[in-house]
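Hi Y.,

Following your request, here is the sequence exactly as I used it, all 472 residues.
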Amino acid sequence: MSETKPLVRGDDEIENFRRLKKYQPWAFFITFGGYFMAHFSRKCYSTVKQQLETEAGYTALVLSEMDTVFMATYAAGNIINGKLGDTFNPTTILAIGLFGSGACLLFINLLIWMGIEHYSTVLGDSLMLGTYFLFGFFQATGGPVGTAVMGNWFCDKESIKKRGTIFGLWTCHQYCGDVAAALCTAWVLGAGLVYWWALLIPALTNIAWAFLTMQLVADPANVGIITPEVRIRQDKMEAKRKAMAEQGEIMEADEGPQAISYMGAFRIPMVAQYALAFGFFKLTNYCLFFWLPYFLGKSFSPVTANLIASLYSVGMMPGGIIVGMVSDICGGRRAVVIGVFMCLLMVFLGIFAKFSEAGMNPMLLLAMLGCMGILVGGPNNIITSAVAADLASHPSVRGSSKSLGTVTGLINGCGAITASIGLLAVGPLQEAFGWSSVWIYLICCTGVGTALMGPKIYAELFPPAGSNVVDV
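Below is the corresponding structure, written out as tokens. Let me know if you'd prefer a different format.
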């Protein structure tokens, strides 16, 4: 159905709403599963690193280089794939990401089966790094493009008012995927199977989910459902048509909203600030995620240190749900809620800076890490989902251009780049000045990120007269 047909009224509007609500659970399920598969496949590799070194013959340096290559292409892939999702059919982009991820893991299995590393170290290393270079791009489709599909379907007033809760639940996909990967690898090794089964299983499930994803309808307008977004576009097109008619001009046929440019996305109010702020928040998350086991290993055994550090990851899962629900209760004031969470996080980091090197009570440490997981995970998850959807709904672009995938990709990609650069300071800081300097560094990063959100926080606390925080 063309988006330029007259607006439907009465019974047709009720039917459109019924069809929209009926398909929403399926859209949630397919996109949730797609991102679940992404984390399932990328985490499984990290769970068999030891076997890749001892049995496949890859050195620790190559495994480290694989991580670096993945981070670089994943960051760039977010920016590129978000734009592709707005330009082309999002379903196709999501399916390509899943097929590509599965194919990369299958190729890694092929390298292991053929023992390429044992025949030629240079060839084996080059093929592995090249495969992981592509793997990063394929893995980067689920976030920005999946968020865009979710935004397309959850666009009615009821869903917008509950956007934080909906996206908070949806962002649990990454933690579910990580847990599934750990369980899969534990089952493979526990059952006495060869370790490469831990790579083969996610490869096959990614490909299987790609076939399922191909059945996804990415936009309600593709099946003739007139959403609020389409109505706004029709109103804008009708006003433009009348203005051109008064000047004796004829408007060309409407081909639907066009993908926004990168510069156009950055011109949306607060997109640039959120992209930078997210980088500082993501830096704090990366530092805690990657360095906590090492830091705790100074006081505990390696096994105990990893178990204690896992409390941080456990806390991140409900974080997005909590921030989303609280922001919905507060009328969509997500920046205010995120700011409060970040200020509380700085208090916790200050306690670490003061007492961590002197030794902390283990039970207090467990409680603090769980809380810190909530305080970090909640804002990180919501910024790249519900907040991105809010930004892409700004009146300057709503109804006239596709922007959610591009906005999400920019925030995610720019954040990953900023965080990767910031991580370079952690090692030298802790060697030169001790761990207290690292926690102070993270306090400063968190503070800068929160300050970048200052204009939005102020606008939510003191909105102009007659305006609503949540534009529905």
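Confidence is low (pLDDT under 50) at residues 1-9.

Thanks again,
Q.
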